[in-house]
Amino acid sequence: MNSQFQQGRSQSIKFIQTQTVYEQPFFTPNIDILSVSENLYLEKISKQATSRDQSPRKWQESHKKPLAQQPKFVTPQEAPKEVKIIQVNNDEKKIQTKEVISKPTTEHKQLIGRAKVLLLQQRTLNMKKYFKIASLAIIAAIRIKKSLNYSLWKKYQTQLKNITFFLKLELVQTERINAWCKAVCAKSLTSVNQQLHNFIEYPNDKEQVDQSMMKSINSCQFLLENLAYFSQPKYFCEELKYYLLSQVFLDHKAYFSKFVSNRTLYLHTRNRQIKQEELTMILVESILIDQVLVNIFDSNQKCVFLHKVLASLLQYLFIKKFDKLKQKRNNIQKLSAHQVISTENRLKLNQIPNPENNDLLIIGLYKDEDMLTLLNYKKTAYKKIDQNFERFCCNLYTTILA
């Protein structure tokens, strides 16, 4: 009896060690209870309705209960500083994170101060780097600009060789230039076949004033249209181009008017750069006074009043365009101006030296108020005249200096 008890006890202990969930009696029967129970359980599952996509075994595996994760026990020595050990049931220790808020120490303050100093040093280095790059770019731009100015000066100097050659051929030069000027003024002068009523000095007769103003403004419009048209490169006179280019240089200028000389310094060895507006002003003054107006006054058309109106209009448009230029100091002592003199139904330009308190190009013409009344008489024509004068100035610059 004792031997049977000892044998059953040993078997039960060994069974418990295999971690089974069933309690075994001290005496094991010959029938395998585990296999019977397992077969019954499988038969029960197979009788249940299963889905098309899930087999009984897969359903069994998916419905298994997950094993509970065993809690991890940590000793107080192994626990880090950022966590807090809390006490739970059954004397189990779990780890729970906790945000630690600590006051900045002196070491932290020193580190923050050093970081700020390093940031400031880095910013200053970056600023020095950017400033160096910007300064190099400015120096490069200045050098490029100087090289361009030198190339323009060199270009003008090469043109002067052709200028001196053509200026020696006076007969050829004057004939071709006069032919170009006659083509410019022809339509304007032939539009008026008789003497016009002087509506500026005698504004009382309304009928004659209207007719005279209409013919005068039409003649002015024709003149500006031809100036804008014939100043294009393909229609311009080559000899006139060289003459006008010579007037840009201080050493070759024929005369110096007060209005223009106070707004430009001309080209010379000490001044190799002039703005585009200043160059345009010199060219327009030279071609209008030296060529166009001289040709108008010497024409066979004997209407003195119309000639004076055309000259007054050109001077008004010239001063209106270039009066905005900034005045400069010049060292030119021999300033001059032109004065209109009427002789035997003809106008003539005389050059007078040192005009006092007078910035006009030509003295003795009609006032600006008289020209405004004429232009406002037909505002559509006034707009076209203004546009054609702008075109004429642009074409003249591109033809000669571009």
UniProtKB/TrEMBL annotation:
Residues covered by region (Disordered): 47-69
Segments of skewed composition (Basic and acidic residues): 54-64
Protein's recorded name: Transmembrane protein
Which organism is this entry from?
Answer: Paramecium tetraurelia
